[in-house]
Structure prediction request, 895 residues.
Amino acid sequence: MRKLDPRTKLLLLVVINVVMMTGKITGIFVPVRIVFALIPFVLMMRETWFRGSFIYFFLYLYVFFLERYTLQDIHPVLLIILLFTTGLFSRFLAGVMMAYYLMKTTTVSEFVTAMERMHVPKAIVIPFAVMFRFFPTLKEEWQDVKNAMKMRGIGLAGRNPLDVLEYVMVPILMSVSKIADELSAASMTKCLSVEGKRTHIAKIGFSFLDAILVLCAAAGLFAHIFLGGVIAT
Amino acid sequence: MKKYEVKDLINIGIYTALHFLCIFIVAMIGFIPQTFAFAGILEGFLGAIPFMIFLTKAKKFGMITIMGVLLGLITFLMGRPWPCLVIGLAAGLITDLVWMKADFKKIKYGPLCCGLMMLWLAGMGLPLFFGYRDSYLANLEEGYGKEYVEVIRSLTPDWMFFGSIIIGVIGGFLGGLFAKRILRKHFAKANLVE
Amino acid sequence: MITFSNINFQYKNNRTDKGNLIDINLTIEDGELILLTGESGCGKTTFTRLINGLAPNYYPGTVTGELLLDGENIIGKSVAELGKTVGSVFQNPRSQFFNVDTDSELAFAAENIAMDPKEILSRMDEVTEELDLKDLRGRSIFELSGGEKQRIACGSVAVMHPKVIVLDEPSSNLDSESIEKLKCVLKKWKEQGKTIVIAEHRLFFLKDLADRLVVMKDGRITNIYDRAEMNDLSGSLKAMGIRPLDEPALVIKRSNEGIRDYIRIEHFKYSYDRKTIALLIDKMLLPGGQVVAIVGQNGAGKSTFLKCLCGIYKTRKDKILLNNNRWKRKARSKDCYMVFQDVNHQLFTESVLDELIIGMDDTLTESEKKEKALDILDRFGIKDKAEDHPMALSGGQKQRVAIASSVAAGRDIILMDEPTSGMDELNMMRLSAELRRLKELGKTIYVVTHDYEFINECCDSVIRINCI
Prediction:
């Protein structure tokens, strides 16, 4: 199975977010929204992440209908509470899934290759790539600290929230600072430098599927800007 | 201007990730209109803590600016209008200038820098204001009904945009004070910073 | 050839003399495998850092003397420049990879020096073959075990065809099977004529490979033994505070001495995701009142077992009885205290004293708490550190703080995960003595470990957990 080009994924991420976050929710934008909500679903199915894609599909379906057809004439307070959840999901969900897909299916080196093809300077590329790599590490760190808190029986109850914040943040910050030092040292011994050209073994490039998706994104953006979906005036 | 080293770029990446994550967690709450102001304070407060640690590593001009650019890029990827890129860059640049004034080490300027850095959050809230707002609200009304929109409208007049910036900055400043304490209490005591 | 002549090194930001080097003179021939050892802080890591250039380029300090690599003085040469001839493998698997997948990491260094992609790919295949990495290609680094990560680290170094390879405590987090694999890699490299410098505490796996054993103390080289001399050393090393050259046989004593309670475990099952079962124990009887070692391969679920036992992980439908009474998760988490392998995550207050006080019984007054805490610290020999920040302590001291805080919290069962990884002889012996003393105080200790010397030193029983 041919992999998508990271640039296509980035473009899709932006367009999905634009359409979902700042786009209209009525008229012809109903099908537009549906199409863009379906893109992450299809891509995830293609990776055979069936469980995740079905959860996403039904969750989205649920909030979409709730938002569109059910929440019309009910009490404003209730409406606002409900809208908080449905609105949050209908706006963020597709983008979050797309970001998840992007992170899961793109290796750091493909990502770096794509950025360098777009002529992004190394001073941006390296930090961005490190960021990309660092989210899973942060998750591991957070779990370790959470386990330690649980084990020591230090919970939220009956404590100053600032103290709790301190107990959580200090080990994470200390550990992160150590990882930053060691990662820098290791990368330097692997000849990473700020100047100098690199080569890439990652093969990236546009395929037929890329073309379709780019067209989709372009059409979505077109509708968004020229058919009155855009919010800026 | 001193050249960047690998270590600098890796630090930028790592602390941007941590800073962004702190803010992203709080930003989820910010979708409830009534918590708008509260979330702003909290975002700034939490985000300032890793940023303060980053300040102790930022010894060269431009490191904070790069962080601002990265944050602008993330905001853009999240579907905010393009001016968020400029806002991110500007926030980084301003903070960088102040931190340079502090010789990249005077920690008493730290909370101020934390506050100023939070200006990038303005890019996140952009769709709720100015020209974006009216058509956004008009559109929301078709979908959600008048009451909901009224609540948002009352909470987000254009001056609130500047209000929200100030709230974020205050949150950042307070977070900076808290982080300064952590630096003194933990990092300095454990000989991890000078 | 590497020649150290009159090398002195002093770290810039260091308040103690730890890790500094004094008057180092040594010539390492091409193709030689040098094993560096000595107590923690003796300077062996600094020694490797001078060769790969991290000291003084990355870890600043002042250096005098000459360090010649093939006749050229390399002090002051950049790390990236040296990286073309010197490969480095580090201790911590969490922080030595730039990438998130194995293939990218293998290619990373070669890409950085702009090697031709075709050449990189062919070298990657060659290294995969040589170091037997086939099953690790194309995987996410986050799903690899410690041993697998270390093999990838070796592979990524090998792709550069370095002349010299330095390794800083590469076996710290590995079980015996992974150590065996690491040994194969080193053997291969030695056959290829590479010059290898390893700083290590655990020596046994290198006995057949090392050409010379260099012992350091307080920054100086105190002894150098060649192959023939190494064979007669077994007795005298212990006196120098150095781990044995021969892996001790596991002596199973099976003593029933001190057993008070029994923990009966039935149907203990845990999985991180829905697909793979990380731990499955049908029936098990754990003795209480003893120091019990838990051994088994990496991936057999030993750490998971500890986390389930102390209630960090939720197991479903388990049945755990303490002396025939139901012992629920809530109760377990109140009775057990776990000392993690990376102890840094569980210390979070501003002083050692606070670390103990925070977990104490709330019915005591502040002054009572303080008195009791100081008392415990005294017993652990770290009373003078009471006001210090926990993170300013050495690894062994941090671990003692964690154990002391479990005593302060009045927990009766102490669980430890690989407490001796990366530990020198002296600290290991001290920990053994402490565990024996805790047992006398009526505590039960379950310790997951690969360290046979340590088990022989202090454990009463051994339990083996196998892979499913």
User: Anything to note?
Assistant: The CA atoms of residues 338 and 346 of chain C lie 9 Å apart. Chain C has two domains: 2-239, 262-464.
